[in-house]
Amino acid sequence: MSIIQKRWNELADIKDELAARDWFPGTSGNLSIKVSDEPLQFLVTASGKDKRKRTEEDFLLVDRDGQAIERTSLKPSAETIVHQAIYSKTNAGCCLHVHTVDNNVISELFSAEGEVTFQGVELIKAFGLWGQNDRITVPIIDNSSDLSLLAQDVVRVITKETKAVLMKNHGITVWGRDGFEAKKYLEALEFLFSYHLKLRNFQSVVS
Predict the structure, then answer these.
(1) Res. 202: pLDDT tops 90
(2) pTM of the entire structure?
(3) What is the model's pLDDT at position 108?
(4) CA–CA distances in Å: residue 144 to residues 41, 54, 106
(5) Distance (Å, rounded) from C-alpha 77 to C-alpha 59?
């Protein structure tokens, strides 16, 4: 099996798992996985596809400029440029972008602060944080219909510790060294978002 087919299967399996959680409403979201570093090539979701279904046209291979390497009628996701930016800035091997109600609400609630931080919750250990006072922070940027500006804003807030970026009312993009790590980080963050919102709602009821 070729490296492209291996990465294709890996990304397809991740897509299936996230789709089962209903994290791709209205064909939203986009995924990618790196195939090679030099030259940079990665598989990315084709635009406008129903991600609840698994087909042979789910992904296409693109180069460092986001252009299809092989002749195809498929178009890469409009947000491929964001994936390009992350691959150029980090050691990411896989990027996952989903729109959920929880991550959109969190981005709205904390947009003025420009970030949201979690501490004292067991699941931050998913990020290798084991210390009593360790914390995980996710930067929040404004959404932009100009995707080149959006990609620039993503790169601007990335530090060595950054694992994800929230876009206000536009979802979250998470990355890891490979598909397993990226999915782990995404699952952990969505848990933390849901936990915080439920706790906040409970506190407002009892206060």
Answers:
(1) no
(2) 0.95
(3) 97
(4) 26, 30, 18
(5) 9
